[in-house]
Amino acid sequence: MRQFLDRASMSFAAGAFGALVASLAIWAAGAYHLTARVGIDIAPGLTPNWLYPRIHWGGLWGFLFMLPMVRGHCG
């Protein structure tokens, strides 16, 4: 059980970290007008109201890293 909880928390953390990096990349692209140059009008503000849902859902999507373990492919 301990191993399962360790992997679950690591999966959530990996997904949340990935979402944080992706969100920061989107913010930076908007802040430096890179998105406007390619015709996409997105320039989000770096606020908790914008960032929190993305990190939360990224963490939940991170649980997909556990699928090999559920199927018995990971030792």
Judging from the principal axes of the Cα atoms, what is the shape?
elongated
- The number of helical runs is 4
Assess the beta-strand content as a share of residues: under 5%
Radius of gyration: 16 Å
Q: Percentage of helical residues?
A: over 70%
The biggest beta sheet is recorded as: none
| Estimated structural class | mainly alpha
Number of domains: 1
- For the record, give the distance between the C-alpha atoms at the N and C termini, rounded to a whole number: 13 Å
- Low-pLDDT regions: none
The mean pLDDT is 87
Oligomer: single chain
Order of helices and strands: HHHH
How many runs of DSSP E, i.e. beta strands? Answer: 0
Characterization of the model:
The chain has 75 residues and is mostly helical. It has helices at 2-31, 34-37, 48-62, 67-70. The protein has one domain (11-70). It has four helices and no strands. The chain is elongated, with a radius of gyration of 16 Å. The mean pLDDT is 87.
Give the structure's gist in a few sentences.
The chain has 75 residues and is an all-alpha fold.
List the helices and strands and how they pair.
Elements: H1 2-31, H2 34-37, H3 48-62, H4 67-70
What are the defining features of this structure?
75 residues, 4 helices, mainly alpha, 71% helix
